[in-house]
Design brief:
By secondary structure, this protein is α+β, with helices and mostly antiparallel strands. It has one domain: Trna Endonuclease, Chain: A, domain 1 (3-Layer(aba) Sandwich), CATH 3.40.1350.10. It has three helices and five strands, in the order H-E-E-E-H-E-E-H.
């Protein structure tokens, strides 16, 4: 059963999410990427970073135990992308400014 959030809890969660997305954006921009954010983060990815030779599509989560729910994970893995595009899941743990980055590869990409 899903718990219902109060309006204050929802505001706090969105604020925390924006904070972690800003951290990820700063790191990508410092690495030379042009970064755009999904409006409202309602799509598969929070950030899309375009570099000289690659594109990084990034889903960002943060908190004590940041995780990617099964439905989201399956959707990311099912999405077929060109070889120059990487799907990434960035986890920011509380108190740590360096994310744990997981590259989301489909079995075809791993074998390919």
């Amino acid at each position: 059963m899903r718990r219902e959030w109060t309006p204050e809890q929802a505001r706090r969660s969105k604020r925390r999410g924006r904070y972690y997305e800003r951290q990820a954006r700063k790191q990508l921009e410092a690495a030379g990427y042009l970064v755009t954010a999904a409006a409202g983060s309602l799509g598969l990815f929070d950030l899309v970073a375009i570099g000289q030779s690659d594109v990084r599509c990034v889903q960002v989560k943060g908190g004590k135990y940041p995780r990617l729910p099964g439905k989201e994970r399956r959707a990311l893995l099912a999405l077929q992308v060109p070889p120059s595009v990487r799907k990434e899941f960035w986890r920011f743990f509380v108190g740590n400014t360096s994310p744990h980055i997981e590259v989301m590869e489909t079995p075809a990409q791993v074998r390919g």
